[in-house]
Amino acid sequence: MKLWPLLLALVYPAAAAHEAVSYGTVSAEFHTDAAEGLRTGDDTLVGYRLTVVGRTMLPAECKCQLLLYPGAPSARVMPQVPELAPGFDDPQTTEGWVKVDAPGTYTLVLAGKPAQPGAFDPFRIEYVLNTLKETP
User: pLDDT tens across 108-125, in order?
Assistant: First the structure.
């Protein structure tokens, strides 16, 4: 039975690559449709799933905003603000399209507060992504 983790990783490779980042009692699991990176010069679907104290939140439970900054977040740089919607394949996720024109490092900033006051503390979570290497 020690083969279970290996079998799960083979059957669900994308799920194994997602990374969770926490702030207080809120955790966000980020994913992209491009092997956990960003495509240069093309649209990339980015998404997240929120949990609070081990319970998955529905998108309607959080007033969230997702921003994409080139490099580190800065007040001097205008971020991309993707239009967010519940996930097509998984209604517990929230997704939006972004497009980057230059290779490099980008930072997703997810800020949110509860739709129902007091459900959880407001949060701000940062997640760093890199553009994918070009293939010949």
Answer: 999 999 999 999 999 999
Quick check: 37 and 46 in contact, CB under 8 A? no
Backbone angles phi, psi at 87, to 5 degrees: -60, 140
CA distances 97 to 27, 44, 45, 90, Å, are 21, 6, 5, 16
What's the rounded Cα separation, in Å, for the pair 47 and 39?
A: 15
| Distance from C-alpha of 108 to C-alpha of 46, rounded to nearest angstrom | 9
pLDDT in tens, 3-59: 333 333 333 333 334 678 999 999 999 999 888 889 999 999 999 999 998 899 999
Q: Indicate the Cα dihedral angle 15, 31, 44, 120, nearest 10°.
A: 150
